[in-house]
């Protein structure tokens, strides 16, 4: 774990907080400063390894602060940060000695990568510098005079020198310390020079050896070189010859150290390159995903609007026909009416299924994340989902004469914050996916557990598995491996729901062996706030204004409301609607306004604002085919009391009118 000291100098609190948490999570010791002056004061008082410095500070330009920092601490690493990137600021920063330059908004992964790179290079540079500055020498000779002579000669040249009176003392010192060069006498009592040389090679093969002898011969020279000595000095000793030999040895040793450090730096660079590649790949995948969602969102919005308008007309007319036909029972045409009702039921179901397909596409493409406040017990959700699907994994399996063993392994886990209905839909979709993947039967295990601060749900089956090629596509909308049996939206909807809950969904699969889905959610701690339901007052029939530029939608809404007993007037544009509304205020004012969102010249938001200016107490309901998501505070600011998505059923419309009228009471 890293323990380097880092100073963050930035006048934005959110940036300081983000960097402190990010760096401390990596094990760094982090201090903060809100201005350049405070940063300089802290650098004077305390030694830091690295500073992250904003270029624009409240008291002084960051480049000027960098110049002052370098005057105080020349070896301190500086990384500049800015939201106003330019070639000039980058050049000025690098000219003053900055290591790197990071643009805001900050990506924590990029920050960690640059900090590690900077500190790694600094450590490698220091190691090389320290290695080049030192040279530790051990003189081994049983002649005390020789030891003293060599020690003085070498110490006067700046070398660090120790002596040993025999081979045994020398080996002990080499085991305890670190030496670059040793000068060893060839002939000594107890342990000869070549024996010492061989023993040292086993302890530290990097030590370079110079042989000293008063009895030179070709044979001893050859033996010495074979044992690893690089030079040979003949007594009586010439100090200049000794210094020359040591310098040559130290140059060789320095080259070895430099090569070793360069290799280490190359390995470090390779590791950093690998990390950079992984980060780049991750970023690329995120960009592809974001672009896919953006494109799908555009498609979903356009298609949904047009499709929902058509479905609103189809469903509205079907329900009106059914109401009208139900009043003719008992007459001669009853059989024909009965058959017509059955066909209408079929058409209504098909239209409702089409509505669900559009909503699922919108669910997948939805980018905004809802802020959930309701605690959800994932253990209860798992058990409820298993019970709900019992007929499918047990009863249907028994009829097909196959066996599906579905078991749950539930751990003690905290609740998460979310939408229970949506999360149950995810669980049901994934279990159904596992059931469908086991046409010959098999095992399904559902587990819950903790992963640090997160909560996990794991669904694993022994089904047919998914190929590597298809694994990358299973969360795409309309992709299915079930031929014509599915819409290909189950997993894409699950993906969208999990993402909106700040969760992750991962897939592991081996063809022929099975598939595992892993859901990860942050644990939640907020308490559920329950509102006591109270019966509302009885409502009278309302006088309603319907504004919609689509004639078919406008007419079907009018007929549906009239069938409920309400008095309805229609307008084909926002301007016409406001004229009718203003005129009615003098005699018989409208109690409720329904307006379409997407209209030319004046949209639904603008209509709502104008209505509220004329009559703040009149409820305004916005009807849209866009699958709009707006929080309640924003709706109120825009003058809208309720939003409903097309198509709408008679029951939903009746409930909406009641809710809207209650806002007026």
Descriptive report:
This protein is α/β, with parallel strands linked by helices. The protein folds into five domains: 5-109, Response regulator (Rossmann fold); 136-237, Response regulator (Rossmann fold); 259-365, Helix Hairpins (Orthogonal Bundle), CATH 1.10.287; 375-522, Histidine kinase-like ATPase, C-terminal domain (Heat Shock Protein 90, 2-Layer Sandwich); 543-662, Response regulator (Rossmann fold, 3-Layer(aba) Sandwich), CATH 3.40.50.2300. 51% of the residues lie in helices and 18% in strands. Helix 7 (167-176) packs parallel to helix 8 (193-203) and helix 12 (378-388) crosses helix 14 (420-436).
Please name the CATH topology of the largest domain.
Heat Shock Protein 90
Bin the strand percentage: 15-25%
The CATH architecture of the largest domain can be named as: 2-Layer Sandwich
**Alpha carbon gyration radius:** 40 Å
N/C terminus separation: 63 Å
Major sheet description: 5 strands, parallel
CATH class of the largest domain: Alpha Beta
Unreliable sequence segments: 483-488, 526-538
User: Can you tell me the number of structural domains?
Assistant: 5
Average pLDDT number: 80
What spatial order of strands do you see in the largest sheet?
Answer: 2-1-3-4-5
The assigned structural class equals: alpha/beta
Please identify which CATH superfamily of the largest domain we are dealing with.
Answer: Histidine kinase-like ATPase, C-terminal domain
Could you give the count of β-strands? 22
Shape: elongated
Quickly count the helices: 21
Estimate the helix proportion, in percent.
40-55%
